[in-house]
Amino acid sequence: LAEDAKWRVRLAIIEYMPLLAGQLGVEFFDEKLNSLCMAWLVDHVYAIREAATNNLMKLVQKFGTEWAQNTIVPKVLVMANDPNYLHRMTTLFCINALSEACGQEITTKQMLPIVLKMAGDQVANVRFNVAKSLQKIGPILDTDALQEEVKPVLQKLGQDEDMDVKYFAQEAISVLALA
């Protein structure tokens, strides 16, 4: 059912995954279900990718940050180099969701460098989602990372040729009080 042709069936299965994972345990999940959860992140239907992102956050809450750091985060971050821009954007959506569950250290050390690197993406939609992601994860980061790493990238995005990128960069700068 998890690979059913009908996306609504796949969506229903995703909703039960955290409950199922909790019942079966982390070892069984990693062995049998992890690859399925990661495959949902690159589904052709947006609703499935969105539900899969929320699913990962619930799994991290269930299995803990150490599990996330070793199992989920590296797989998500690899998607930042995917040729499909939708999959690159899913990386950002996952980082937005996972940063809260994983906390400051993992967000700053593992996720932030990938978001900053993605600021140079050739697709404007990815760049403006980088600005939105920086706005979302900014409160989780320490002030040094905000001032030294995030602020220069947002200022550069604020000079982007795409007006949407400029807008979201300026909004992130004002929300994070980096002006």
UniProtKB/TrEMBL annotation:
GO annotation, cellular component aspect: cytosol; nucleus; protein phosphatase type 2A complex
First and last residues of every HEAT repeat: 72-110, 111-149, 150-179
Keywords: Repeat
MF terms in GO: protein phosphatase regulator activity
Superkingdom of origin: Eukaryota
PROSITE patterns xrefs: HEAT_REPEAT
Protein's recorded name: Protein phosphatase 2, regulatory subunit A, beta
Organism: Neovison vison (American mink)
